[in-house]
Amino acid sequence: MDIIQAIILAIVEGLTEFLPISSTAHMGFAANLMGMEETEFLKMFQVSIQFGAILAVVVAYWKKFFDFKNLNFYIKLAIAVIPALILGKLFDDKIEAVLGNQIAISTVLVLGGVVLLFVDNWFKNPTVLDEKEVTIKKALTIGFWQCLAMMPGTSRSAASIIGGMTQGLSRKAAAEFSFFLAVPTMLAVTVYSIFVKTWGEGTAQATKGYEMLLSSHDNLILFLIGNVIAFVTALIAIKSFIALLNKYGFRFWGIYRIVIGIALLIYFYSVK
């Protein structure tokens, strides 16, 4: 991986992480188009640059995250992230196995797009307009919905936003709670990928993420650049998405997913 490739992947990650279109699918397609070899470092890089996107949420909503008097906010996020922590650990190997299956990911992209076409019609009368009205029970339910995104191509953002809307949240409230929930979720994933997970387990090249980063000055530079770029682009995406969601709803994103998903299926079948 060179610096240009790292920057492109980071831009893709930052722009798509908080949109309901699957950052995993888009990064996988971008890497494939650039002819990048699917190395353990590439897989770790795609996961770990989520840290930059996390910081973007914290900066965009800094008043919320640093309001230490609002303990209920932290409690709800802590409870909502529990399902992802448990199921993520249990199905880690299976999730990683699917990451290289671009046809499966593209298919899920299309199916998720079909769902988004109808979401606005299913949830027309929201009763929860603000995060403060989200109960602990609702937060936990949204946390379980988020786990659907463990299937690459689903989109963590789409799963958690739809989960929020099933609990009566408005589109704006569901999107913002999805952003908030992304922080502990993606922080846990990033820490796990760098310090806990053994990449290439069972092979002679088995190594921890931090060992890959420290083994090469170039790897460390790519990691730092990737997170900075992901931070900047995610900040732009977060601010833009709320406005677009309020104005157009989910139908646009559904059409986008279907079109891109079909294009990807045609492409990957043609190069098999």
Structural notes for this entry:
With 272 residues, this protein is mostly helical. The protein has one domain (3-270). It is built from 14 helices and two strands; from the N terminus they run H-H-H-H-H-H-H-H-H-H-H-E-E-H-H-H. It has helices at 3-16, 23-33, 40-48, 50-60, 62-65, 71-90, 92-99, 102-122, 136-146, 156-166, 171-196, 209-214, 217-248, 251-270; strands at residues 198-199, 207-208. A two-stranded antiparallel sheet has the order 1-2. Strand 1 and strand 2 form a beta hairpin. The longest helix is centred in the last third of the chain and has 32 residues, at 217-248. It is globular, with a radius of gyration of 18 Å. The model has no long low-confidence stretch (mean pLDDT 89).
